[in-house]
User: Which sequence fits this backbone?
């Protein structure tokens, strides 16, 4: 284990040297293209990220028994990190090789004189062919002009394009390494160590990488029920909540002190205490949920910040209040309604960007050990931008950025560690989004695969641009077996989705609906499932969306 740790440190160090060299070459190559500064900044940013990751992984700490975080990972995770980094090294080596074809000096100068024998197995040396095609030094002889012209043409038509591709791929892979290391830090067994989480919460390198935000969410989720802080809104809010303007079935807009808030309300017909308020257990669950939703979150969570909750006795509802996103007019519309609005037509790119945003939301929730339980199109909202004109004016809806949805509708019990068997709910309109194990009277604890299934149903709706309930002519009213609904949704995905969205999107939806991710002998935290979901769903959608 010590050998793999030493080798990984060596790869990190080599990667940093190659990153610095790549940035220098791009900085010197003023005629690289009009985006030279953009490429230079990207390489510098990625190199800084590599430095921060190295610090987090290889700084010894008493938290880890005097070892490093890297040494506390399983051997399989350590090997994955090494392989990921080796691929990055190869990418940067190729970028340097291509840049030096046009601009310059030998890559040999960047190599470490103390490179270990194990490191040399990574084959970091540039190809012989590339060394032989170095651009000749400028000379006055006119005889060299044709050769110089051929070299410039070769660079313009081949090498420059390939260099740009390599740098894009490098940034994409480095981003995926970053997200996977965050996943291993938070979702593996070490993520249950509160001292480790507090280190991620307070360490400067972790803060620069954004690990602190997710660590704080996980700490808050773990400590839910132990806080004495109340998120219940005071009586001063009563009038504003009473006058809230309804939005569809479950939402409303509330105005208070010159600000607009989004109110989500749900029926409460449970027990009451002597004062007519909700019972103590429900109050605790509601307060915990409001506390979790109030925490700062990265935009990728797609969850607006909750400012509190209030029981409205006259309506028998519990209201949650959320901030509305800046830059948009407070006129929300749900995906459920959009699917049935005449004239609304999304481009292929818009559908992929929306699907990517929702898949990232689910994977982020999994990472901090949350479950949603009610992931469906009626709980996915958009705030139209009235300053921009819609491409489909006949719909009467202003421009919508489909890459920026708001996800709401969380049930009361959020942390996955809390038991949630659920109450009987025989509504087909909601059952169609539920895994067969969770329909009707659920007899199994809610887990990650159930949210993934619900995501698959929503992605099917987006791909076919049709409500799930309408995918069967009788709206599933004759379905006596929960697995009949699943079978029909799968049939629709297999028959129609490929033509409309392509094979990759179709495979993503089928994987979500079947739960078949090729995972066996998973960890207690479902870490392998989370990695497979990220690789087979999130990364696939993200890459396609980036090129449409």
Assistant:
């Amino acid at each position: 284990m010590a050998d793999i740790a030493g080798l990984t440190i060596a790869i990190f160090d080599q990667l940093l040297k190659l990153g610095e060299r790549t940035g220098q070459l791009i900085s010197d190559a003023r005629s690289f293209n009009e985006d030279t500064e953009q490429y230079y900044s990207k390489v510098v940013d990625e190199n800084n990220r590599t430095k921060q990751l190295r610090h987090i992984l290889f700084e010894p700490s008493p938290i880890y028994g005097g070892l490093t975080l890297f040494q506390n990972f399983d051997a399989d995770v350590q090997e994955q990190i090494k392989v990921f980094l080796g691929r990055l090294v190869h990418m940067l080596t190729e970028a340097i090789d291509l840049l030096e074809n046009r601009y310059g000096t030998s890559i040999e100068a960047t190599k470490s004189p103390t490179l270990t024998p194990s490191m040399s197995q990574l084959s970091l040396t540039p190809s012989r062919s590339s060394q032989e095609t170095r651009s000749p030094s400028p000379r006055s002889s006119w005889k060299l002009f044709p050769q110089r012209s051929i070299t410039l043409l070769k660079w313009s038509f081949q090498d420059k394009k390939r260099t740009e591709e390599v740098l894009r791929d490098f940034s994409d892979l480095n981003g995926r390494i970053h997200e996977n290391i965050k996943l291993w830090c938070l979702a593996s067994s070490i993520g249950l160590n509160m001292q480790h989480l507090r280190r991620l919460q307070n360490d400067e390198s972790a803060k620069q990488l954004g690990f602190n935000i997710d660590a704080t969410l996980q700490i808050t989720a773990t400590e839910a029920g132990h806080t004495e802080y109340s998120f219940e809104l005071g009586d001063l809010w009563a009038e504003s909540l009473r006058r809230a303007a309804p939005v569809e079935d479950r939402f409303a807009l509330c105005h208070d002190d010159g600000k607009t808030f989004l109110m989500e309300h749900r029926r409460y017909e449970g027990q009451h205490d002597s004062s007519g308020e909700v019972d103590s257990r429900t109050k605790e669950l509601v307060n915990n949920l409001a506390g979790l939703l109030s925490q700062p979150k990265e935009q990728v969570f797609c969850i607006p910040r909750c400012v509190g909750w209030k029981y409205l006795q006259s309506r028998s509802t519990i209201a949650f209040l959320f901030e509305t996103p800046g830059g948009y007019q407070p006129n929300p519309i749900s995906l459920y309604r959009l699917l049935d609005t005449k004239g609304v037509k999304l481009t292929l790119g818009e559908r992929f960007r929306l699907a990517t945003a929702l898949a990232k939301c689910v994977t982020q929730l999994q990472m901090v050990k949350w479950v949603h339980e009610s992931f469906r199109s009626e709980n996915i909202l958009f705030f139209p931008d009235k300053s921009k004109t819609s491409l489909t004016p006949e719909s009467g809806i202003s421009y919508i950025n489909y890459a920026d949805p708001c996800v709401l509708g969380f049930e009361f019990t959020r942390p996955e560690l809390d038991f949630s068997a659920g109450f009987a709910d025989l509504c087909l309109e909601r059952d169609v989004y539920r895994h067969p194990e969770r329909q009707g009277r659920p007899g199994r604890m809610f887990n990650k695969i159930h949210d993934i299934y619900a995501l698959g149903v929503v992605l099917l709706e987006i791909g076919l641009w049709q409500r799930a309930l309408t995918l069967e002519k009788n709206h599933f009213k004759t379905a006596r077996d929960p697995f009949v609904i699943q079978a029909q949704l799968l049939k629709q995905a297999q028959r129609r989705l490929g033509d409309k969205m392509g094979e990759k999107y179709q495979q993503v939806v089928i994987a979500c609906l079947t739960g078949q991710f090729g995972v066996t002998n998973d960890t207690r935290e479902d870490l392998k499932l989370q990695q497979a979901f990220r690789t087979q769903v999130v990364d696939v959608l993200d890459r396609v969306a980036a090129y449409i």
Observations:
- Strands lie at 245-247, 251-256, 259-267, 306-312, 317-323, 333-334, 380-382, 406-407.
- The chain has 19 helices and eight strands.
- The chain has a mean pLDDT of 83.
